[in-house]
């Protein structure tokens, strides 16, 4: 099953709508310079009013380790997503299972450095100088595929209703992270787009499952010949 994370949540209405449509996780951005920044106090209040089975993810960018830990505890976050230039040593200060490291891949050399990161998953986002996510640009799918050789993959970067099917069929990620592709404006989600993109994702899942079943049956028939 492909996990779906709706990131950049700033209000309860958007959060509840995302969950109703079937989102598995929500992302709250605690980076003050982001257009989708949310204060920890507001995020905590929202999280307390949401179903406990939903994965609550906090997004941080080059922030002090202690600050990240304090916000994660205060808001009772399920996961921590580091979306800046954090080093492997920085990442080692957190439990591996609760940590996502976001990266922007441009070359094969960028892939080599990932092997040193003690994280539970890698999120591949688009490269945009001076920006840390939410740009609407498409990430490098060719390199994203190779991330799966070392880490579970979360695909991000300009995903929307027009390209999500191709993205999943091409990359086959374990999860997708959707932000600007379902927005009216930064921090305000389009509920219809959220519903549509999640329906497409589930349709693609079913198609891929049927395809795998057919391929498996064909393989078994070939073995018996």
SSE blueprint:
Blueprint: E1 3-7, H1 12-21, E2 25-29, H2 40-47, E3 55-60, H3 65-75, E4 79-82, H4 88-91, E5 99-104, H5 108-114, E6 121-125, H6 141-147, E7 153-155, H7 164-171, E8 175-178, E9 183-185, E10 188-189, H8 191-224
Parallel strand pairs: 1-2, 1-8, 2-3, 3-4, 4-5, 5-6, 6-7, 7-8
Antiparallel strand pairs: 9-10
- State the fourth-level CATH superfamily: Aldolase class I
Structural class based on helices, strands and sheet pairing: alpha/beta
Number of contiguous helices: 8
What would you call the shape? globular
Give the key terms.
single chain; 225 residues; alpha/beta; TIM Barrel; 8-stranded parallel β-barrel
Question: What can you see in these coordinates?
Answer:
- The chain contains eight helices and ten strands.
- The longest helix has 34 residues.
- It has an eight-stranded parallel β-barrel, surrounded by five helices. Strands 9-10 form a two-stranded antiparallel ribbon.
- The model has no long low-confidence stretch (mean pLDDT 93).
- It starts with a strand and ends with a helix.
- Helix 1 runs parallel beside helix 8 and helix 7 packs parallel to helix 8.
- The protein has a single domain, classed as Alpha-Beta Barrel (TIM Barrel), CATH 3.20.20.
- By secondary structure, the chain is α/β, with parallel strands linked by helices.
- Strand 5, helix 5 and strand 6 form a beta-alpha-beta unit.
């Amino acid at each position: 099953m492909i996990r779906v994370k709706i990131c950049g949540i700033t209000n309860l209405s958007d959060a509840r709508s995302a969950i109703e449509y079937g989102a598995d996780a929500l992302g709250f951005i605690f980076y003050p310079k982001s257009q989708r920044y949310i204060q920890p106090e507001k995020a905590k209040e929202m999280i307390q009013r949401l179903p406990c089975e939903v994965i609550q993810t906090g997004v941080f960018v080059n922030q002090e380790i202690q600050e990240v830990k304090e916000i994660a505890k205060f808001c009772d976050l399920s996961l921590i997503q580091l979306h800046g230039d954090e080093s492997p040593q920085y990442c080692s200060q957190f439990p591996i299972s609760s940590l996502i490291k976001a990266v922007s891949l441009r070359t094969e050399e960028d892939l080599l450095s990932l092997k040193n990161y003690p994280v539970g998953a890698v999120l591949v986002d688009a490269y945009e100088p001076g920006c840390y996510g939410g740009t609407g640009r498409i990430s490098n799918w060719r390199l994203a595929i190779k991330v799966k050789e070392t880490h579970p993959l979360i695909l991000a970067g300009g995903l929307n209703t027009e390209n999500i099917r191709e993205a999943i069929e091409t990359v086959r990620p374990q999860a997708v992270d959707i932000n600007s592709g379902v927005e009216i404006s930064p921090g305000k989600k389009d509920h219809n787009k959220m519903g549509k993109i999640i329906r497409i994702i589930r349709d693609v899942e079913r198609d891929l499952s049927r395809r795998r079943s057919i391929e498996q049956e064909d393989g078994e028939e070939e073995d018996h010949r």
